[in-house]
Amino acid sequence: MSAEEGPKPPTEAELAEMDRDQLLKLGGKLDGVEIVDYPEPWPVKGTRAERRAERLVAFWFALSALAGLAFVVSLIWWPWQYKEPNDERGAFLYSLYTPLLGITLGLAILGLAIGVLLYTKKFVPAETAVQERGDGGSKEIDKATILAHLADAGNRSTIARRSLIKRTAGAGAGALGLAAAALPVASFIKDPWKNSDNKDSLWHTGWQPAHPGEKVYLRRNTGKPEEIVLVKAEDLDAGAMETVFPFRESERHDEHALSQAFKRSDNPVMLIRLRPTDAARVVKREGQEDFNFGDLYAYTKICSHVGCPTSLYEQRTNRILCPCHQSQFDALHYGKPIFGPATRPLAQLPITVDDQGYLYARGDFIEPVGPAFWERKS
C-alpha cells in the first residue's frame, strides 16, 4: 500500500469492536492528523487554582440562572401598568419595569456566554494538531471517529466530575429558556386592553362620554390648563384649522383632569372649517354622513401610519399633512390618504352644537385612532 493511499480502513465488524481510544487514534490516521501537543488543562488534580476556576465558571452560570428567573418574575409580576407622576411610588416602580427587563435578560445571556467561554478556556484541552486538507463528504467511519474525538475532549475537560459546573450550567440554560418561553406567554397573561369599553383602551379615546348623555365639548388650548375656552362654530373663519381637546363639565374644577386632557396622546383633534365652495365638493364616508356640522369637520390628529401628529393643514388644496413620513390626507374625501405610507383614513369625530352654540362631540370615534395593532381588523 502506497503512502498516498493512507491506512487501510477497518471493516464494519472491526469498527464496532473498537473502543474510544482506538477510534481516536484511527480518526487521526484516516484524516491525516498529527497531534503535536495535547496537554492536560490541570496536570495536578485538585489544586486551589483548579477549584477557583471551577467556582468562577459556576458563578457565571449561577448568575445567569438567577438573572433568568428575575427576568420572568419582572416580566409577569412587576408593576407594569402606567402610573401618573402624582403617584410617586407607583410611577417610580413603573419607570423601573423596562430597565429591569433589559438588565435581567442581558445578565442571563451574558452570564451564560461568559460561563461557556471560561469553561472552554479553563477546562477544554487546547490541542495542537496538524491536518492535511481533504475534499468530499463525511463517511460513516469519519462520523464514528469524530464522535470519539468529541467524547475524548469532553472526558479530558473533566466535565463528568464537575457537578457544580454541570448544575449551574443547566440552571443557567434552563432559566434562559424559561425566560424565552415567558415572553409569548406573558402576552396572554397581561392584556392591557382586555376591558375594551373604557377610554383607556386602544379602542377608545378621551372623547368617550363617561356616562350616557354626557356632553364632551371642544376646548381650546390657551396655554393655561385652568382656563376653559369652548369653541363655537363662528369662531373659525372659512379655511381655518384649530387643534381642540375634550372638556367635561364634571372636570371644571379639577385642575389635574383639565391638565391631563391636553397631555393625553389620542385627545388632539383637528377642527377644520371648509370654504363654502370646497364644502360643496365633500365626499362623505359611508356610515359617517352626519359626522360634520355644516362646513365644520373634526379629524383625529393622530396619523394612521405610526401615530405622528398630522399637524399641518394646507388650505388651498385641503390636504392634511403628516410631517414625519409625508403622508397626506384629503379633508374633502373623509380624510382619505392620497400620498405617503398611510393606508387608512383619519378617524372622524362626530360633532354638533348645543343650545348655546358650543361645539361638542356626539360620541367617541367609531374606530380606533392611530396605527394598527394586533386586534384591529382594518
Automatic annotation (TrEMBL):
Protein known as: Cytochrome bc1 complex Rieske iron-sulfur subunit
Record CDD domains: Rieske
PROSITE patterns, A to Z: RIESKE (PS51296)
Top-level taxonomic group: Bacteria
Keywords (A to Z) from UniProt: 2Fe-2S, Cell membrane, Disulfide bond, Electron transport, Iron, Iron-sulfur, Membrane, Metal-binding, Oxidoreductase, Respiratory chain, Transmembrane, Transmembrane helix, Transport
Organism annotation: Amycolatopsis samaneae
Residue ranges that the Swiss-Prot or TrEMBL entry lists as coiled coil: none
SUPFAM superfamilies: ISP domain (SSF50022)
Family membership: Belongs to the Rieske iron-sulfur protein family.
Purpose: Iron-sulfur subunit of the cytochrome bc1 complex, an essential component of the respiratory electron transport chain required for ATP synthesis. The bc1 complex catalyzes the oxidation of menaquinol and the reduction of cytochrome c in the respiratory chain. The bc1 complex operates through a Q-cycle mechanism that couples electron transfer to generation of the proton gradient that drives ATP synthesis.
Principal location class: membrane
Positions of transmembrane segments: 57-80, 100-119, 169-189
Domain Rieske positions: 266-360
Compartments it resides in: Cell membrane
Keyword Transport applies: yes
Membrane topology reported for the UniProt record: Multi-pass membrane protein
Record bears the keyword Repeat: no
